[in-house]
Amino acid sequence: MRETLKILRYIGLPNVVLFMTTCAIWIAMNYVNVKIPLKTKDLIDLIILEKRFDTNLFVTLACMYVLVVVAGLFAQLIVQYVELNAQRNFRRSVLEKLITGNPPYIWRKGVGYVKNILFKDVETFLKILSPRLVSTLFSLTYMTLAMIKLGEIHWIYALVLMVYIAVIIPFYRHWFKKNSKGFEKALDLRRRLSGIFTNLLGARTDLHVYGKADDFVRFYHNNLTKFGSSMTNAYNTNLRLQVYPELLQVITLFGVTLFGLYELVSGTITAGTFQVIVVYSSTILHSSMELAYVTDDISRALAVKKKLWEVLSIDAVRGVETKNVNTLVLKNVCFGYSNKKIVDNFTLVVKKPDIVVLWGKSGSGKTTILDLVKGFYTPIDGGIWLDENEPKSFSYKNVSYLPQDPYIFAETLYENVSLGRELQKERIREILKKCGLGEFCDRLEMKLDSGGKNISGGQKSRIALARVLVDPADVILLDEPLTGVDVDRKKEILKKIEEIFADKIVLVSTHDELVSSIGKRKVNI
Fold this sequence. Notes:
Low-confidence stretches: none
Number of domains: 2
CATH superfamily of the largest domain: ABC transporter type 1, transmembrane domain
CATH architecture of the largest domain: Up-down Bundle
Strand order of the largest sheet: 5-6-7-3-8
CATH class of the largest domain: Mainly Alpha
Mean pLDDT: 80
Number of helices: 16
Structural class: alpha/beta
Largest sheet: 5 strands, parallel
CATH topology of the largest domain: ABC transporter transmembrane region fold
Radius of gyration: 33 Å
Helix content: 55-70%
Distance between the termini: 53 Å
Shape: elongated
C-alpha cells in the first residue's frame, strides 16, 4: 500500500485534488442512496397502512433518485478525465527516469521492454483510477451505513451480512495476492516478448546474413508459448475463484430474505421495512460481489506495481556539471565480456582544444571507448576523468554524442533536430546550412518517417550532426560521422566541423580516411 501511494504522487497534484473531490461526491452519493429505501418505506407504508398518497414525499424521492444519477455521471466523467490526464503525467515521470536517471537501463533491457513499461504497464496500473473500480471501492460507504440501519431493524440481519463480509474480505485479500503473482509472471514475459520482437525487427538483416533468423524466431515462439500459458493460468485462477463468492452470496441473500418474510408474515415488520431489508441486503451483497469483478484490474495493477516502483526508484544520475571542461583522461582502461577483452589497457589524455581520431577496423573497440566516456559502461579496470570528475559523477550535459546509427523519429524535421527544445526556426536553419542541408531550410515542417525511410543515409547522418550542433558540450564524441555523405559535401562539412569545434575536446571514431584527416592526432585502436 505504501508503494502504491508513493507511485500515485507522480500523477500530479491537480489530478489528486480532482480525484479526492470525486471521492467526496461518491461518499455523499452513497449517503443519499442509503436514505432512498427509507423514504420509499415511508411511502409504501402510507399507501398500504393509511391508504393515502403523499405527493411531497414522492417528489422528494424522485429528486433524490435524479440527484444520485446526475452525481454518479458527473463523478464518472471527472474520474475518466483524471485517469487519462494521470496517464500523461505518469508516463512523463517514468520516461524522465528512464532517460535522465539511468541510461544503461534501456541498454540492458532493450527499447521494446522499456516501451512496454511506458505504455502497457502505466495504463494497467492506472486502471485503479477507473470509474468502475473507484465506484466499487467507495460502495463500502453504502455498505457501512446500510449495515447500521439493518442492525436497528433486527440484529440478525446485520450479523449475517457481517459474517459474509468477514469471510469474503480475507478471501479477496488472498485472491489479490495469488492472482497478482500469476499476472506478474505473465506480464514480465510480455515485456520480454516486446523486447525480443523489437530486436528481431531491428536486426532482421543481420540475422538473415548470419543464418540465425530461424533460431531467433524459434526463441521468440518459445517465449510466446510461455506467455500464453502464464496468461491462461492467471485467468483460470481468476475464474475459478469467482465461483465461491457467488455461491456464498446466493446462500446469504436467500437466508436474509427468508427471515424477512417470516417477520413480515408474523406482523413484526411492515411491507416497507421488508423492502428496506431486501434492498439493503441485495445491494450490500452485490457491492461485495463487484469486488470479484474488479479483481482482475486490481491484480494486474499490483502485478506491475513492483516494476513501476523499480523504475521510479532509479536515482537521477545528473552529476556535477562542469562549466568549462579542459581535460579528458583515460588511464589504463580495460573492458570486455567473459574472457574476451574489447578494450585492453587503453590510455589517452586530451587537452582542450584538440581533435583526436580513434582509428581502427570494425570491432576493434572504437565505439566501446566512446560508450565508456559517456558512462554507459563502467571500465573493468582503470579510470576515466573529465578534469577531476569520473563518469559516475560528471553530468551528461558535459558530453555531446553523435551515434553511428542515429535514430530518426516519425516527426517533423524541426522536431528531429530540436529534440523537444523550444528553438527559433532561424537558428535551426543556420545549423542545417552548416551541415549541408540547406535544401531543407524551407521544409522544417516536413514529416520524416520512422527510421528516416524517406531520406537518404547521408541526410540521416547530417541531421544527427545538426542535433549535436544545437547545443554542443565541451566534449564531443563522433562515432563514424557523415556515413553515406558524398566526398565533396563531406569535405565541405568537415571544414565547418573544424571551425565549430575549434575550442572543444573532440573524439572521432572512424575508419574513413577522409574523416580521419580532421584530427590533429590519430590513435590506432
